[in-house]
Each structure stands twice: as C-alpha cells, then as structure tokens.
Give the backbone structure.
Amino acid sequence: MSLRDFLSELEKEGKIVHVKNEVNPKLEAARILKENDGKVVMFDKVAGSDYKVVAGVCGSRDSFAKAMGIKKEDLLFKIAEVIKKPTKPQVVEKAACHEVVEKEVDLSKIPVLTHASKDLGAYVTAGVYVSKNKAGRLNMAFHRSSPISKDRFVARICHRDTFKNLEEAGGELPIAICIGLDPTVLLAASISAGDTNEMEIANSMRPLKLVKCLTNDLLVPADAEIVLEGVLTTREKHTEGPFPDISGTFDVVRDEPVVIIKKITHRKNPIYQGLLPAFNEHRLLMGMPKEPTIFNAVNEVAKCKNVLITPGGCCWLHAIVQIEKKNPDDGMKAAEAAHKGHGSLKHAIVVDDDINIYDLADVEWAIATRMQADKNVKIWRGPGSSLDATAEKIEGSDRLMTAKVAMDATIPWDKKRDKFLKAGLGE
Ligand SMILES: Cc1cc2nc3c(=O)[nH]c(=O)nc-3n(C[C@H](O)[C@H](O)[C@H](O)COP(=O)(O)O)c2cc1C
Ligand SMILES: [Mn+2]
C-alpha cells in the first residue's frame, strides 16, 4: 500500500489535520507538529518548495493497527507473527516512484524540516536506507540525514546492519534513501531482523511492491514518494549533530559518513514525509518492535497476556507487563524476564490482567494498592543504553552500566484476593 492510499483512507475518516497556510520548514512546521503530537498533519503549502509535507503518520498505535487491518491490542501479536513469517514482495518493472526523474540533483528543492535551532541543520528523519550485504541480502534501516550541500548528506550510522554492509563493501556502499512510506514499511524498517530482509517482514504485514533503482541494482518500495539513489562513503566524513535522541535530550556530536546523491526520483505532486524526533512517532517506531521480544521472554517464565512500552519511558526504557498470575512468584519472575527480553530496559512493572495497561493511572493504582517496595522490588546494576542520560561509562570500555528495576505490582499470593479487587462502582 502506498502512503497516499493510506492518507486517503485517513482523509475519509477526517483524521488528517490540514495546515492550509504557508508554513516555514524551519522550526515552524516542527512547532505545529509538537502541538499536534499523535495526529497526522498535512502541510499543504511549504515555503520554498513544490512538495507537500506530511508528518505524524505513525504517531499513534491506531495508525499501525489501521494499516494492518487489526485492533491496536493485537499489534504485539501481529508483529511477533510477521517476524516469524516473512514473505517475498512482488518485483515490478514500472513504478510510481519513477514517475519523475530529476535531471539534476538538488536537495534544496526538497522541504527537509529543521526541528530545533540548536540542530546541525535540516534533517531527513523518516528516510529509510536500503542497502545490500555481500551475500545480496537487502536491508532497511532509518538513518537521520542532514543535507550539507546540493548533493550530499551527513548520516548517523549506528553499528548495525547498514554499518556492517558499509564495512563489508570497503567503505563505499550503494544505498537508496526512500521517503514517503506507509506505516507497515516504516515499522518493518525499524525492526532489527537479523538475517531477514525487513522488506519481507513489511510484505507480511501488507503486500509490498518493489522496483529496481535506476543507478544501482537495489530494490526499493515502488510506491515511495521520493527515492534518493547514491553512495554512502567513509572516504568523506562530516560533523553530525547536534540532534535530539529519542529521549528528547541531545545526542553527542560525532564525525559520520557522508552520502553522495546521484539521482533523485519521485512521484508526481510528491509528498515529503517528516517525523518529529523524540515524540510519539519516533518513540512508537523504536519501541513497538521490542514488545514482542519482551512478551516472548516473559512467556518463558509465566503466562504473559500483553506488554506495553510506555511513552513516558521514551518507549525504550520502561515496560509494563500484564500476566495471568498462576504461582506466588510469577510477578517477580516476569519482571526479571522482561529485562532479558529488552536489554535497554531500566524499569519493568508487572501487573495482573484486570489492569488496563494502556491506562497509566490504572497501572499506578496497581503499584499503590498491590505492591510493597521492600518485598516486591528488586534493583541491580546491568548494561545500560546510550539513550539513558544517567547510564555510566565503564572505565576503559565503551560499555555503559545502569540501575535495573523489577517491580511486581500483582496481587500478593498469600493474602485474601478479594481485598485487592476493584470495587466495581456502578456495576
Ligand atoms: C525514527 C527512527 C529514527 C532512527 N534513527 C536512526 C539513526 O539516525 N541512525 C541509526 O543508526 N539508527 C537509527 N534508528 C534505529 C535503526 O533504524 C533501527 O535500529 C533499525 O532497526 C536498524 O536496522 P538494522 O538492524 O537492519 O540495521 C532509528 C529508528 C527509528 C525508528
Ligand atoms: Mn537488518
């Protein structure tokens, strides 16, 4: 499915906030996105560009559920299923993303947003990099990219698959940056799928068509709004950052590889897709794929019903785990297992299945009425995340350590159960 088709479905339901007045891509658009966090926002007119801009497409769980045709409570189970059952996308000859082939490469025509005045500059934030490893396996991943000239970006490349492919290729890697994709492709790109091509995961969520690039043999989503074909190179480096991390604080500034763009293609009347860093969309895309891994780890030790990575914990550092408690120590075992399921967690809270994990006040109620911190909380030190500003560096190593907390807020086994149940007012 194309981003456009998805947007027209949302349009029919009145779920798009349209900004009709001309908007400045520098800070003004980001300000409006912040005010409308969680909603899909379409900027009909952006200063200095012929492109429309949409953002917030993945800003709510409802968006993902709609794109997959399921209920939002079932997202975790769907993600777990598609990771296990990747299927091959169809490869087509003719594609919408090739409707317009730009004669010259000029990135300044694209309305790339500037999100904060302290940032290095404008940043492509919803650009999915496609690359190939030596064995020919395609990979999708997000890499924020700041235009530094008419035909160059500097990109943040963490030590994951794109980085490995770049090293394998001797520091010069053909890539395509795809912009303007529907929630299923974006979600697949945010999954670290090991030896699986993330496009096959996307195809299992919703059929995906691929087409060959014009200047290299990579395959890209045929319905993408914009495709930037080029080469990622370590032969040129540039300062990358400041730019905010998912935590909402600034990431450190580093020297990072440069991307040289060789060809720009796009659909007719292209829509540029933005994403406000450190807000709902960024957090959900990062965090949601961790819910199934926590679910599976908890299921090894107890009956797990559901998992939520919470926005207040940056969708990365906190998880709420819902279990059907069958043994006295299920709650604590589940809390400890949650940390195994997602190594970056700091705080795991386990609740019973009468608690609504999507209602954080209900979760806090369970902590208040069912938990004794001296008995039901365990704290230890373990490997930390670079996204946790309080994590401490181990001397002489790149590794970080942080405090890990496991909280069992389930009904105590040895007490009368009735005492802890909701009074059922009005029922
Ligand atoms: C919105 C968003 C932005 C991201 N930005 C970056 C980034 O700038 N650099 C990076 O290396 N990873 C970034 N990531 C993380 C990777 O895209 C993600 O870990 C991906 O699954 C890596 O795929 P891989 O394991 O195939 O390399 C971002 C993820 C999301 C959801
Ligand atoms: Mn990968």
In short: The pocket of manganese (II) ion (ligand 2) is lined by residues 139, 161, 192-193, 198 (CB under 6 Å). The longest strand covers residues 226-240.
